[in-house]
Amino acid sequence: MPTIPTILVVEDESIVAKDIQNTLIRLGYHVPATASSAVTAFDKLEEFKPDLVFLDIKLKGNVDGIQIAERIKTEYDIPVIFLTSFVDKNTLDRAKVTEPYAYLVKPYNEPDLQSAVEMALYKAKKDKEMKLDRNLYAKALGHLSEAVIITDKEGKIIFINQKAENILGYGSDSANGKLLASILTVESQKFIFRDPEDYAKLILKAQDISIENASLIVLNTGNSFKALFSSSPVKDEKGVLSGNAFVIRDSATAGSSSVPSTKQADTSIPFDNLVIQNSFFVKKGQMLVKVFLDNILWVQAMDNYVVIQTTSDQFIIHSTMRDLELKLPATKFLRVHRSYIISLDKVNVLDENTIVIADKTIPVGKSYKDAFMERLNFL
User: Fold this and answer.
1) Tell me, what's the pLDDT at 379?
2) Whole-structure pTM value
């Protein structure tokens, strides 16, 4: 059952505050309290931990709504909708810096209020998902010597690693949300990526391409250089396209380049087999597929490869069982045989020497049995 969003109303005109509260409750939201000052606002924030705050810009007292919004943004990361009547340009300029999710002009009507709430909650949800993705990418890709740029389906940047920051002349925060086409152009005899439409068409094709000796121009600095430019779609575990990964490497045939050398023996896209908190990417065919840890049933060794079996698919990657054992969280996974790692919460049936997960019977090795039995809960 979906959780009902909790909303806090911060408004020093008691009649207006009560009217907004009653309207929101009638629309199906949980509005446990209102606040009329900075002190009571932060008390209520701590008490109720709301999903959204309605905040009057011109609160009376020493601390106005904009100052409260600044603190909410930095300390609580809760979306804010500003309540406004007529305000001067300087006040609006100050308000914009806090990045409110919407403005609601007084006197308001119910449809406008409902639209503001729904849009703010939706945008906040998407922003949190994007922040999570950026954190996951940073953990997995931040250390790589190649320049890595992740975009959404429209070609807007979600993440760049340190190497890409150096090349593009943007920090990660300033690059996020910008169209890649506004920062970088790429040309070769076969491909031209100059406009947003060029990148969008490439991304929607969901194809893996590699361009040797491509001509790259960084638009904000004017720097140009030759490099190997590769593109690979990013899809979730269900095969739904979520964005694209672009990688810039030093080209062996490029001659002089402003990209520091990053030559490696293995030139495959460097996303395979990187565990990042609750998921990791593996390459399947020409796609990068996100595999969620909660969906893994078992891992099986096959010569120099391992097979990752999920609830809906199977992935074969070049790795060792020891490498995966170190990367997979020990709270969820356990090695029970020299050839098998299992997801503990997926065990259906077991006896002294075997485990059944789904329809698969998995042996338990003698040297692993004691550790396995210690991890089980018995009544």
Assistant:
1) 42
2) 0.47
